[in-house]
Design brief:
Layout: H1 7-18, E1 27-28, H2 30-34, E2 44-46, E3 50-56, E4 62-64, H3 66-82, H4 103-126, H5 136-139, H6 151-154, E5 160-171, H7 173-184, E6 193-202, E7 208-216, H8 225-235
Parallel strand pairs: 2-5, 3-5
Antiparallel strand pairs: 1-7, 3-4, 5-6, 6-7
Length: 254
């Protein structure tokens, strides 16, 4: 299952160029700030990942390498399944099993994953320093995907899901040589980067209870399991620590 990054990628690129420190990272739904125990989720599953890996040519063109993307997805998935939240529990119980969903439900799921793309990009964009009129959204974070995924709770008994998307751009040998030559003449040539964004959605309401992102400009590689685990560990540092245990998406009673 794939969904287009769209505007999300352009916002991410702007963040990399502007500097990772310019945009606040973790955001928590305002209701959790008011009462941390108000949105307890017993079973949280990992939604289908959308993590792509590209090679950047000497001229700056990007081309996805499917084998690299598959490796990165596997590394991110494994890292998330062992990553711990602030409560000491695993952040997710297991990946969602889309094979038990009907075709209509799979389409609905894909549409909502694409919607997260737009919401995540919007939340990051509004937090840029120049967008001061919207900075109140960082404190009163109230983004929602709507109740379209409520069937995952009512039919499959799953309370919430962790949505993860990202991009890893690996500089080719030619790109690295171009950067060296450029440096000799005082020209800065942008190199590769790694970016991950995560959101925790409450299936009952569709509310995004927590969102975070992590950027590494050239010093991370999602194809490498150790490097990926380090990046995911930083990504999940602000996880609310909501209870997540057992279970998978399977029809209630089956």
């Amino acid at each position: 299952m794939r969904y287009a990054h769209g505007w999300f990628v352009w916002v991410m690129i702007a963040m990399v160029l502007a500097g990772c420190e310019t945009v606040p990272s973790a955001r928590v739904h305002y209701s959790l700030k008011q009462d941390p125990s108000s949105r307890s989720l017993e079973q949280v599953v990992l939604m289908p990942l959308d993590v792509d890996v590209y090679e950047m040519s000497a001229g700056g063109l990007k081309e996805e390498v499917p084998a690299w993307s598959d490796k990165a997805k596997a590394n991110v998935r494994n890292a998330l399944l062992i990553s711990k939240g602030t409560g000491g529990k695993c952040c997710v119980s297991r990946p969602v099993d889309t094979s038990v969903l009907t075709p209509e439900q799979r389409q609905t799921l894909e549409e909502h994953l694409a919607l997260f793309d737009l919401l995540a990009a919007n939340a990051l964009w509004l937090a840029f320093p120049d967008n001061t009129a919207w900075h109140f959204k960082n404190e009163h974070f109230d983004y929602t995907l709507g109740d379209g995924l409520s069937f995952l709770k009512t039919e499959y008994g799953v309370d919430g899901g962790l949505i993860v998307m990202g991009e890893d751009v690996v500089s080719s040998t030619g790109r690295k040589l171009t950067a060296l030559v450029g440096a000799a003449f005082g020209i800065v040539v942008p190199m590769g980067h790694s970016f991950l964004a995560v959101g925790l959605v409450d299936f009952a309401s569709g509310d995004l209870l927590w969102m975070n992102h992590e950027i590494a400009a050239g010093d991370a590689d999602l194809r490498d399991s150790h490097s990926c685990q380090t990046m995911v560990r930083r990504l999940m540092e602000g996880y609310p620590g909501l209870q997540a245990s057992g279970g998978s998406v399977s029809r209630t009673g089956e």
